[in-house]
Amino acid sequence: MLEIIKSNTKVDFVKKFGITGIGSMLVVIAALFFVVTKMQYGVDFRGGAEVQAKFNKQINLNTLRKEMKTAGFAGISVQSIGDVANNEYLIKVPAKEGDLNAVTQKVGETLKKSFTGSGLEIRKVDIVGPKAGSELRKSGFLAMLWALLAIMVYIGLRFDFKYSPGAIVALFHDVTIILGIFALTGTEFTLQTVAALLAVIGYSVNDTVIVYDRVREHEQKYVGKTLAEHINNAINETLSRTVLTSGTTLFISLTMYFFGGLAIRDFFMAISLGVIIGTYSSIFVAAPVTLFFDKMRGASANNNKPVNA
Question: What's the rounded Cα separation, in Å, for the pair 55 and 116?
Fold first, then answer.
């Protein structure tokens, strides 16, 4: 089997957990701040109108955005959908409940006026009220919450419940940082983003399970060693597999991000970030949290021992 990193490496990961733990905590706090103060929600979650328009010739996206902004549409999002040769575009316009019909009508009028002779055809108009958008946003976050809880139960049944907190903290770490980057860069949070984050959760927990599985093997095989030693050995032995798997996945997701078109760019931005952050967290978040709770449990057991008279 191809090994970029030899399985007999002896890197002391446990020794680095203190520094990486503090760093991760600071990044998560900063990410939460950006999510609360700067997150831009898409039309799916804040309410508005989506207009799918088709032309008989290619329209420059920047020109289309400029014309819509000149017409007074603030916070508009324009992207190409389907094959480039189809010349189809999706225009998302935020609007209040009472303005939705008027806004969609104005979008159509602006397109006809600005692109006369381009064979404009309005293929579809979707309207999402602010109340419905709020419900979708709530459902999106609940979907991620239920996924985390289900994974916690799975880890507990598959291994031991002492591993569950590490997996959940690692997943919370990954999702929070990705959302923080989205907020910081002004990337809209949409239903597509929720789908990407659920995929990231699945990918990240798979990476964590690989490490946990090797830790459990070592606990059964090398009785008497500490959990810290088992974790160090497990991470070193799986390091080559982690680098190869994550590198291959990252290469594909970055390729799709740069060459897949605007319609899927945000999705693969989240996936690419998830691969990088998830690989880091499976080593430097999940493992140290498990080690921390194991020490806490050991200290609690010692404190509860009866004192001999």
Answer: 10
